[in-house]
Write a structure and sequence with these properties.
about 80 residues; mainly alpha
Length: about 80
């Protein structure tokens, strides 16, 4: 009984302190990780969690790359041409 109450209290604490997350890349990574984890000795949940982390990391790298190359080849990043 104490463990049920403890788990419930922990779950409520996590829910009420959670902040909105930017999930770019997480869904694709989680699906791929879950499939890979399922075939690797039935660790689908662990694979989904790790896939989400890796997918989010790769999405941020891709976004950074796109921002750097959208400025043009002659401009330095963080350069203000107006001044």
């Amino acid at each position: 009984m104490k463990s049920i109450l403890g788990c419930t209290a922990l779950a409520l604490a996590v829910v009420f302190t959670a902040v909105p997350a930017d999930a770019k890349g997480c869904i694709k990574g989680a699906v791929a990780g879950a499939v890979a984890g399922h075939y690797a000795h039935h660790h689908a949940l662990l694979g989904a969690a790790m896939g989400c982390v890796v997918g989010h990391h790769l999405a941020k790298q891709h976004e950074k790359y796109e921002q750097e190359h959208a400025q043009g080849p002659n401009q330095e990043p963080n350069q203000n041409p107006a001044h």
